[in-house]
Amino acid sequence: MDLSFVILVEVLYAVASLVLISAGLAVVFGMMKVINLAHGEFMMMGGYATITAANLGINVFVAMLVIAPLVVGLIGLVVERLVIRHLYGRLVDTMLATWGLSLMFIGLATMIFGNTTTGISTPITGFTVGDYQINGYNFFIIVVSVVLVLCMLAVLKGTRAGLIARGTMQRSDMAAALGYSPDRIYMATFFCGSALSGLAGAVLAPLVGLVPTSGGAYIAKAFITVIAGGPSLIAGLVSSATSFGLVSQIFTFTISPVIGEVVLLVAAVIVLRLMPQGITGRFFRGKL
Amino acid sequence: MRGTGGRDVLITLVVAALLIWIMPTMIATYTLTVLVIYGMLGLSLGLIWGFGGILCFGQAAFFGLGAYTYAIAAINIGESTVPMILAVLVPALFAAILGAIMFYGRLMDVYLGVITLVVTLILFKFVNTTAGPQYVIGKARIGGYNGIPGFQTLNVPGDPGAYIWGDPFYYVCAVALVIVFLLVTWLLRSSFGRIAVGIRENEVRMALLGYDVAARKTVLFTIGAAIAGLSGALFANWSEIVTPSLFSLSQSAEIIIWCIVGGLGTRLGPILGAAGLAYLKFMLGQQSMIDNTLITGLILVLFVLFLPRGLVPAVATLWGRIVVGTRRRTQPRTMRRTRHG
């Protein structure tokens, strides 16, 4: 009984962290069709922003949930104005340019923070269930990602801004004809996507030792989750995160964590081979 | 075209011989050897990406696979001839299987990139975990993140005691690069190469003309992997140790950057890009003021923004403008439209 509860929490946590890792990329790639290979570095910078702010004496939750998204969002804004703006619609070129950006950010972080591991302790203590110890912070991550998905759903579906953004992504010429500036909407959407990446990096920062190259650990997972998800933004994100999280945790428990990781990647290759349009290209069609 | 073929080969050989002879007076052969090896690796991606339109994010996988195959086979056999052949065959076989899975599944640009990237990551993660003594192939321990040191390096075929190292090894690598370059040239001038370029330009049209696009892409992908495997084996001989970092994403990124900077759709571009940037990295490695990665990234961003076709095509265009009354260019034309992977 206790074991099954622990496993349930672990699976939920795996799914939640996948959702969290991929949310920013889902907005930037899923909506704007910009392949942001610097996504992992945006998360890395979110982590560093949190740690720096926390070391300056700011409450760690404020640093995590407010400061890090803002800082990374602003960095994303600068990147969009300087680089991405010129490359919309050129898929491969954006991919290469953002790869270059990711290398630059790694270099910058190495110069500023040094090539050493930094970290902060988890702000929530663990507790025991029967014979097992559970990390209380895992619950925080689950809660954050549930709230995040609900917020994204509410903003995209419920607000006028979300409607305009979705419309612009589908037909920017029509949006322009109706008096909205696609340029500014793209800018704002990229800001939101970067801020989400920053948030994810910040929330996950206490769990990992942060080095300038830690972004690389996230990028592949984020990518395959978003691409396997397919055209529907939120339905795709949740469905692919659930399936990958489930599969990798099953193998993590039965064999080993490394095999779990490898199986996740293999599963992604199989999913893409069978469903080249992603999961929501076949199921949940037309959902958001 | 056939008439000029012989003359082109002659010019290539003369220029190559001159370069091989002159370069050691400027750069130490030890450094030069690795530049030549990287040049071959750059050429392997330049072939499949620049002429086949296949953007492979995992060329490092074949490079690493070649190096590991060589190391493992060399420990088991104790002589270098068979391992060298295996180091070409194993990555080629791996690429043939992977390519067949991808191209017969009609996977295009982004998805192709992601799958090759993921496969590279799988290899990287897997090799990193093989530190334990239970991971043994024959007599060779895979060694995980420690890599495999101490294998038999290149020797004169049939005589395991006669090692080829130092200056002779440089000449072996350089000659290998020239041979590969000529083979690639021949391939691109054959009907297979022309059809490959056709597929790059318009896949649907080539399919409608009756060519088996998936099979041709798979073959081209396999050839690219074989070249990458050969360069991997030479690299293993140069560094005398193979480590999982050969499979790493940054290695893949570097190969792509070489091709972009040198120029896609040319044969010389990727080679020059690889050798030039690797040498730049080597020079930068001797200073510690600015981080190396930062500059690599900056170069990539600037090239994508301002010179997306790369150096060699840009210089060629400039040259064409200077020399009025241009003769018909003998090099295959560079891509005019957007690159698609």
From TrEMBL, chain A:
The keyword Transmembrane applies. It comes from the Bacteria. It holds the Pfam family BPD_transp_2. InterPro entries: ABC_transp_permease, BCAA_transport_permease. Signal peptide: none annotated. Keywords: Amino-acid transport, Cell membrane, Membrane, Transmembrane, Transmembrane helix, Transport. CDD domains: TM_PBP1_LivH_like (cd06582). The keyword Transmembrane applies. It is found in: Cell membrane. Belongs to the binding-protein-dependent transport system permease family. LivHM subfamily. This is Amino acid/amide ABC transporter membrane protein 1, HAAT family. It comes from Pseudosulfitobacter koreensis. The lineage of its organism: Bacteria, Pseudomonadati, Pseudomonadota, Alphaproteobacteria, Rhodobacterales.
UniProtKB/TrEMBL annotation, chain B:
Its main location: membrane. It is a multi-pass membrane protein. It is found in: Cell membrane. The chain crosses the membrane at residues 9-30, 36-55, 60-78, 84-103, 110-127, 169-188, 209-235, 255-280, 292-311. The keyword Cell membrane applies. InterPro entries: ABC_transp_permease (IPR001851), LivM-like (IPR043428). The keyword Cell membrane applies. Keywords: Cell membrane, Membrane, Transmembrane, Transmembrane helix. Pfam families: BPD_transp_2. PANTHER family: HIGH-AFFINITY BRANCHED-CHAIN AMINO ACID TRANSPORT PROTEIN BRAE, HIGH-AFFINITY BRANCHED-CHAIN AMINO ACID TRANSPORT SYSTEM PERMEASE. This is Amino acid/amide ABC transporter membrane protein 2, HAAT family. It comes from Pseudosulfitobacter koreensis.
